[in-house]
Amino acid sequence: MTGADRGLVILVHGGCGPRRPSSRAVAEIRRALAAGFEILARDGSAVDAVEAAVVVLEASGRFNAGKGSQRQLDGIVRMDASIMDGRTLAAGAVASLEGVLNPVRVARCVMDATPHVLLAGPWARRLARHHGIPAWAGPTPRRRLSWKGLYQRLAAPRAADTGTVGAVARDAAGHVAAATSTGGIRRMLPGRVGDSPLIGAGTYADDGAGAVSMTGVGEAIIRGALARLIASDLALGRTPRAAGQRALAWMRRRIGGEAGAIIATGAGAFALVHTTRYMACGVRRKGLVRVAASGTRVGDR
Ligand code: ASP
User: Which member of 165, 205, 232, 272 has the lowest number of beta carbons within 10 Å of its beta carbon?
Assistant: First the structure.
């Protein structure tokens, strides 16, 4: 069988927001799609494919994840990431992780090498060291602020201008997986954790439903448990596009906040949806690549 016959599909996003993604960011989306699709085409698993795609985006420095991560208000970069395997519902995640270039790889370690789902802070970093995941110094910390100083700088939750990254995929065996990685939002308190490492909020994957990776204001996405909401709708037979749009519209109405989602099902259907003006994103299937600054223009199936 050729790659064209097996329903292989991978989607990636590089965050959603009001600004058009740069051509360099779009080029990295293309590279991430290629890295993930190559694994699928070699009969690799969806979970390996989404990890590989997110690794490319984290290492690029063009997004608010890994090397390009936003600093928290005390000047320190603390990152969140998660990964989920729709075949087994196994999941791994890290929160408030410092000093690692590829948080998604540490999330994968939590999934594969521990009985836990979410590891936070210095111990997540120690797990990374233990498994030989390279250290990363990160930007030089700015001066430390008092609580008063932190509160003065605090703003209403707003996604960063450069985006969180994520990937969803469906492999040759019909399994799905999802992964998400972020440096957070603008002007966040030290220790703030968003939706991206929370299974059911920023990431979800179940072969019986589909795979979902979210981007947008985490405070709203968490309260709406958006990824799981979309997956539940998929399991009830809604198309990826209908499920995604319904969830985003509900969140906007009921909680407030803008977001975007990439969605793929075990049947090979997919959608890229967002309520923001732009979402850096792309899809690769049947050996074809489509990349755009705006999800709705990429086309759904
Ligand atoms: N969802 C991310 C967070 O709240 C931010 C984003 O997607 O831009 O941490």
Answer: 232
